[in-house]
User: What shape does this take?
Amino acid sequence: MKTSTRLIIELTMPFIVMACYCLSCWMDGDKFYLVRCFSWSMILVIYAHFRLQRQVILFSPVNMFCLVYLTVPLTNFYYIATDFESALFMERISMYHDYVYLFEMASFYYLAGLLSLLAGYAIIAQPPVKPLQFSSERTINSYVLLIVAAGLLGLGILNFVYNVFSLAGGNIISYMSNVALRKEEFQEGGTALGYQFYYMGSYLITYHYVRLGRKAGLLLYGVILGGVLLMASSGRIYATLAYLMSFVAIFYYVRYLKTGNTNTRKYVLYLFPLPLIGLAFYFLRIVSGMIAGGTTDDSVVEIMGNFSDLLGFYAIDKGNTPNVAVFMKIIDAWSVDHGYIFGKSLYSGVLNNLPSAIRPDDVNATSFMVRDLWYSNVAKGGALPTTAVGEMYMNFGPLGVFLGMFAVGMLIKLWFSFVIRSRNFWHYVALVIVSLTFIALYPKVDFTNLNPLDVIIAYMPILLVWGLTQFLNTAAGDRSLRGKNIKPEIP
Assistant: This one.
């Protein structure tokens, strides 16, 4: 049997089985049979997307997007099993339409959005990959790089020490165990600004290792571990995991571009423990909040037992996966209660991260708009992400789901292609950071998560090293550069 024929059968049979299953559910009177059909279709489409790739690039932005998109059908299956009994974002508000109908429409739009994004991504050809190219010593001096990296790392460490002493009296254990209140503490006097410099320094050290062709050593492992500690101390669970994953992704790309071998199975094994680590962080944060608030006298074992019983509630009902219930409300009432916003939210990430002195009062962030419109008594203080598909619906209506997600797919592919052609280490760093902090999360969040600071963290450190290197070259009277009037190479 030919490979192409075998592949066609392999991809067709699951859809046939799924169709039979959905028909059976319909004949049995299952009110959620269409939701089951759309949910399984999403899973099979993602499977087909990976299966049809000649070589799976695990950390490509579209593949990370698809992996996280799997949480949409998983959320659907949870709501099918619980019939929205504990859904926070449905029980306190009324619907214009029947919730089963809204559930069906939300699932259909999620499937349509996924297909549209993959179609937009597929129409642009991907260029062949080539090994990275690195700047010369004249352009990026290694000694300057290491000095700048040490300075940046030092700023982050000093910031951490300041926080420990100012917020916990110098007791690092007390400081780390109180992460649930970190946001409020930072508002009162602490700061994490120096941590950003530490992250920049850690990527400079990584660049130094990669440029020299060295494997990760004790110094780099220690620097990464320090960054994880700083990020975890801020109480940001996913950001901590994303920071750790960024280094795995960088070395993944370095190996792939050099050898052409992705070795995906090996890296999947590296990533497998991360959800468990994230779950442990989340549990500790809940315990920290309960202890800090004085709301429980239970032992840690009893809290753990309650946590395991309420895992679905904490993970799904509280909106830590794509908030299907919120999207159902958007379909139900957005056009009536508010009206479409025609692209105003697509630059909310830039506006929302401006300094407060120049930030406009209305940044058109959909996560804040739906909170203030419908859920002010439920989501107190925090944002309420509308999901990628929900945001496109809020901007342009049903048509926006198709065209908006198609455009997003095209933009992702254009950027990925540009990075491949550039053969520039720092473009890959930017790609990895933005992919982990925004593109991979986009199935759950909205454009508010597209933070310009991520791009600054990727490019600012090497530009600083380049600028200092050029200054020193000029100060030392670099005759070869002056005499030949050669423009300095941009890193």
User: Anything to note?
Assistant: Residues 31-129+297-422+437-450 form one domain.
